[in-house]
Amino acid sequence: MDFWIRDATLQIGTRRYTLDTLNFSFEIPFEDSEELTTATITATNLSADTRNSIKRGDPIIINAGYEGDIGCLFVGKAAALSHKKDATDWTTKITATVALDEWLSAQVNKTYKQSITAKAMLTDLFNIFGLEVGAFELAENKTYPRGRVCRGKLKDVLKDIIVSDCKSRMLIRPTGQLIVNKPDTGVNKGYLLSAQTGLLKATDEDEVIPIETALNTKTPTAEKEEKLKTRASLLNYHIGPADLIKIQSQSLNGRFMVVRGRHIGSRSGDWKTEMEVRPV
Predict the structure, then answer these.
(1) What residues contact 158, with CB distance under 8 A and at least 6 apart?
(2) pLDDT over 80 at 113, yes or no
(3) Backbone angles phi, psi at 76, to 5 degrees
(4) Less Cβ around it within 10 Å: N or C end of the chain?
(5) pLDDT-based confidence at residue 77 (cuts at 50, 70, 90)
(6) DSSP readout, the chain?
(7) Does the global pTM surpass 0.70?
(8) For residues 138 and 119, is the Cβ–Cβ distance under 8 A?
(9) How far out from the chain centre does Cα 118 lie?
(10) What b-and-e string marks burial along 95-131, b requiring 16 or more CB atoms within 10 Å of the CB?
């Protein structure tokens, strides 16, 4: 990312565009929760053939970064779209959601035998529906002495088992991976965010912030700093919800978990990753 030259690709259905061939922008919010990510993509002057061919459920994939170093930001499917003509330009707006079919329409109706564990049950459900699992580590692996009936929407059944019964995190990242792990455990770890790697200056740059403390260790001072801190960097596909990152700046030095944020990009406007973090 030495020269910060923007580079991105957008796939709509089977068609793939670059920033050079299509003027498009995107906003991809993310959060450490079981809520689905809905991205917004705006494209200018798609051909009439392409505009007419886009339909609900078409694959939408966004890769972005810098020349020689781009990565995946979003994998989902088109949920809604609109086309508007202004003077000589056509503007197409697409909203796309991660795991659209699996979460909005998938139903489960299955009975599991006595003494089955949550891990065994979840493994079976993941295989049935073909979910891509990026991490699978339960905080508690509950046993069901009388077995369990799983009936209803897949997303509700999984949330009930993972979050309610097993006290674990359930997260679908914007790239479509299902994450199941301990709530205090990060997804990806070790990325350093500094001025050299794209950290942007914050408005509270003159605040006094406590020095770095060990993971899972809170000093009395650190307890007061539990309030989320807002930071931004140049667009960074490495950063996502529940990641553990290290921040080095004039005002903020330590290890933090990403709670929520968004990736914003366009050909000539914003090109950044905004995030809210908490100390760990």
Answers:
(1) 122, 125, 170
(2) yes
(3) -160, -160
(4) N
(5) very high
(6) --S--EEEEEEETTEEEETTT-EEEEEEEEESSSSPPEEEEEEE---HHHHHH--TT-EEEEEEEETTEEEEEEEEEEEEEEEEEETTEEEEEEEEETTHHHHHT-EEEEEE-TTEEHHHHHHHHHHHHTPPEEEE--S---EETT-EEEEEEHHHHHHIIIIIIT--EEEE-TTS-EEEE-TTS-SSEEEEESGGGTBPPPTTTTS--PPP--TT---HHHHHT-S-EEEEEE--TT--TT-EEEEESSS-EEEEEEEEEEEEE-SSS-EEEEEEEEE-
(7) yes
(8) yes
(9) 25
(10) ebbbbbebbeebebeeebeeebebbebbeebbeebeb
Q: CA torsion angle for 138, 144, 145, 149 (degrees, to 10)?
A: -160
- The mean pLDDT of 169-196, rounded to a whole number, is 93
